[in-house]
Write a structure and sequence with these properties.
mainly beta, four-stranded parallel sheet, three-stranded parallel sheet, globular
């Protein structure tokens, strides 16, 4: 249930890093990101779910991405 006033970017995490949960199943609710959400080139687990994004939601080239139910005002590749 976090509100991000502009962009949220998660990139280039190592495979040994702890999992990211961006509105994922272990969170109470999704997040609101006013502009862009970018989750890409991560080698650890990333769970991107139930987020509302004002502009673009871009998820690409993640080794272990899960989630869904994301919405965006323009482009959405996070599902």
């Amino acid at each position: 249930s976090t509100h991000v006033g502009h962009d949220l970017t998660i990139t280039n995490s190592a495979s040994t890093a702890a999992p990211w949960s961006i509105g994922g199943s272990d969170c109470g609710n999704g997040n609101t990101i006013d502009h862009d959400l970018v989750v890409q080139n991560n080698h650890n687990v990333v769970d991107v779910a139930r987020n509302t994004v004002g502009h673009d939601a871009k998820c690409a080239h993640n080794d272990a991405e899960t989630g869904g139910g994301n919405t965006a005002g323009h482009n959405n590749t996070c599902g």
